[in-house]
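Q: What would this chain look like folded?
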Amino acid sequence: MGMCRQRYSFSIFKNKIFLYIFAPACKNQDYNIQNNKLKMLNMNKKILTFGAIGFLAGSLSFVGCKKDDTTPPEISLKGASTIEIDLGDTFTDPGTSASDDNDGDLSTKVTASGTVNNTQVGTYTITYSVSDEAGNPAADVTREVKVRSNKLAGTYAVDDAITGTYNGSVQYNVTVTQSSTAYNKINIQNFGGYGNSVTVYAYVEGTNITIPSQIPTGMPTTPVDITGTTISGASGTYNGGMFKITSVSYTAVYPNSIGADSGVATYTKQ
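A: My prediction, written as structure tokens:
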């Protein structure tokens, strides 16, 4: 009986590995048609099996080579990082832009949180956020919006009820101006009715006016010299929607044991 050797051949096409098995007829060996059909059937099964394995291996190899997206997007502010507006003015957000190395332009997906109350002097923060399709969040970017106190400026008629060394009610006018050094700082000239040379500064924040303890210059020297008087315990209120100061309370502590006066002043804008 002669030797019968099978031959094998491999090929790779589009990430598939194909194994071809050849079973030629052998001399002196009895192969009938049924055996050849069976051999061809087995060969086809092997080709399909190895082809499927090759396809899966190629697919797994392709997926395994894909790089994970771990890079977050970036947000950039349009306009200034700090914006100042006046009481009563509407804040218009200049917006932002955002980009991602895989997803491209994400500007329309940026969300803003935070509100601006244009009837209250203060600093408000707007925070901008966005994430890419892989869920990577960008570092938040913020913008400060400052509502100024300058619309409180003007001339006011004051009715001041005083108790202490002097008891009674006095009327006088004050002039309020906006400070050039801070968005929420005001100056009150002729404070307490002590004269136009006496100016006291105050800060406006939220719904309140705070007057820090201070020794204003220009206090009267006659009929009694009250130079060095300390204004303390002072505060006030205002109407941000109407842009006017409504009241101021204060204590004036005089030097040389003269005593002190407390005033509750009603302000009426002219």
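The radius of gyration is 43 Å.
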